[in-house]
Amino acid sequence: xxxLLYRLGRFSFRRRRLTLVVWVMLLGxxxxxxxQLSGPTSDELAIPGTESLRALEVVTDxxxxxxDTASARVVFTVSGGATLAGPDQQAAVRATIRALRKAPxxxxxxxxxEAKTIAPGGKTAYASVDYAVVATDVNAAAREALVAAGDTxxxxxxxxxxxxxxxxxxxxxxxxxxxxLVVAAIVxxxxxxSLVAAGLPVLTALIGVGIGLLGIQITTGFLDLTSNTxxxxxxxxxxxxxxxxxxxxxxxxxELALGRSGEEAAGRAAxxxxxAVVFAGLTVxxxxxxxxxxxxxxxxxxxxxxxxxVAVAVVISLSLVPALLGFAGRKVLPRAQRRGTDRPARTPxxxxxxxGVVRHRVPALILSVVVVGVxxxxxxGLNLALPDDSTAAAGSTQRKAYDQLAGGFGAGINGPLLVVxxxxxxxxxxxxxxxxxxxxxxGGVVVAxxxxxxxxxxxxxxxxxxxxxxxSEETKKLVHDIxxxxxxxxxxxGGATLAxTGRTAVDIDVSEKINDALLPYLAVVVxxxxxxxxxxxRSILVPIKATLGFLLSVIASFGxxxxxxxxxxxxxxxxxxxxxxIVSFIPIFLxxxxxxxAMDYEVFxxxxxxxxxxxxxxxxxxxxxxMRHGARVVTAAALIMMSVFAGFVLADDIIxxxxxxxxxxxxxxxxxxxxxxxxxxxxxxxxxSAWWLPRWLDRILPNVDVEGERLSQRLAGRRSPAADQPGxxxxxxxxxxxxxx
Length: 741
Fold this sequence. Notes:
Layout: H1 2-14, H2 16-37, H3 51-63, E1 69-77, H4 87-101, E2 106-109, H5 112-115, E3 124-134, H6 140-148, H7 151-155, E4 159-163, H8 176-192, H9 195-219, H10 229-257, H11 262-289, H12 297-328, H13 335-338, H14 349-359, H15 361-376, E5 384-385, H16 397-409, E6 417-422, H17 428-440, E7 445-448, E8 452-453, E9 459-466, H18 473-484, H19 486-493, E10 497-501, H20 503-537, H21 541-566, H22 571-574, E11 582-583, H23 586-614, H24 619-647, H25 654-686, H26 695-700, H27 709-716
Parallel strand pairs: 5-11
Antiparallel strand pairs: 1-3, 1-4, 2-3, 6-9, 6-10, 7-9, 8-9
Helix pairs in contact: 1-2, 1-11, 1-12, 2-9, 2-12, 8-9, 8-10, 8-24, 9-10, 9-12, 10-11, 10-12, 10-24, 11-12, 11-23, 14-24, 14-25, 15-21, 15-25, 20-21, 20-23, 21-23, 21-25, 23-24, 23-25, 24-25
């Protein structure tokens, strides 16, 4: 692989104009495709096969009406001594209702005075608005008419707010990623001491993200993608795009410093650092693509979209980056180095840090593990749920409507349950009444409405208003309590069945499905990490150490996430005004993304240690050497990733905010605590045994040559020292164990 990448790097450098034109044309083609083929996004998070979704299908079939058509609630409130029962208030509210009924795509509007949807005390009421189309097909005119209809009520001093799918419009980008890019550029400038070198990784990352986003836009014309998919792709694409270009650029500068020509330096950078970039990118791609195995379609789609953006970042790093290096020439070097007046090098901080860790390896290891353990403790109380209007941005109309409804009617009004009763023809009304009586006697129920049978009399529905909000554990328990009555209900009604559905039940089912998939997915990722690292490092203990380190980073991220976003500590730090359960799919994405990034740093640090050991260095000296050469670049890469991810903490969307925080924190723990402290300490403790590999396994494992040793051998025209080192790319049958005294 290293040889192939070496040739690609030289070709891209030599034919830089052609390479640049190809990428510009590709960007243009994707732009045209996005303009012509893009479709709407969808926030439907249902999972096929769950009870709630099957019940929705029954309603669609038996009542001959779509259950997924859009709806909205218009919430009316008055303050002071007035009530909505006053004549002026009634006239204003009914004028709004008339305007809503004339709005485009509206099929029905429930007058709160007729539907009895006025809260006790007369201060709050709501009108339900039904549409003829699904939420993604509600046009701009209909959305504008919804908001404009409330003007009459507002003029009469009545507060009007909105909730429901129609109000969940995609917001324009907040530009929060710009702050992360600014910080990343500053880090690059400090690291490289050159404006050209600092700007190049940012430029290539933006091109990669642009192509990735346009690709996602094209995909929306054929598949259902959630509105958060693009944000995830931007977040991940910027971070890995800058980092991968950073690794290539750093190696290119190193080769230039050795006196090589630009073309040769680009080829060697692509062949050596590029090999590690391919491996690191593949780990992220495979981890994200593996979301398909958990059986949750919307997660699989989000993972595939993000994986595609990462793949673009890898290809750009291997082709466009060398081409742009051809245009930049020696301008990527600091001015003093270009003039030959560079100051004498001092002992790198990474080397001094490594020597300190190796010298005090046991205390360093114990202290680091204890710190991670303490940070991870809050994660034991992890509670997962899907977001609703209670987690919407403070000040948004959705959040105001949610709070007003909860204050007027009780928290359960925001999460009603729909119970579907199926019985023999003509028996659904009686069975429904039995269900109403049974459910009304359960704890946590405010009211269960009378059943509404269909024309055939074999199906009925009734609404259940819980006492608690949709995200509470009490509501989740109520859903399970109703379902637990299935056997008794069937026996009492002579064969009738009941099922619970509605958005609240769908969200509960989705959250539980994701929660059940968390440990199997973690097992897949950990197993994958072990196999990949086994092939790369040809060692048993190094992969075990790497995967355990990855788990430390994950549990620390979970702990910090729960501590702030669920338990409500330090909320001012991230700008949130209310807390609640963690969004269900955040942990599973966190596992997949952190896995790839952790393996990224593992490869760039440990490859050098392995190479030094192969060449005869003492195990401790090999560790120190790897930190001497890699710590500065990995530190810069980690700071860049942290900056990009932290920039998204400023977003209003709670999903993007919490994922950005968790990834920034996880990268910090993994890079600085795990990879730069725990890893050197463990390798020092293991000594030569860290690189041991059984003879039989050495014979069957492929040699991927990530560090480019074979390429170096070919270019130098001499035999590689690795060929004489047992167990490390040596003749089959020999192992490192043979070297031991």
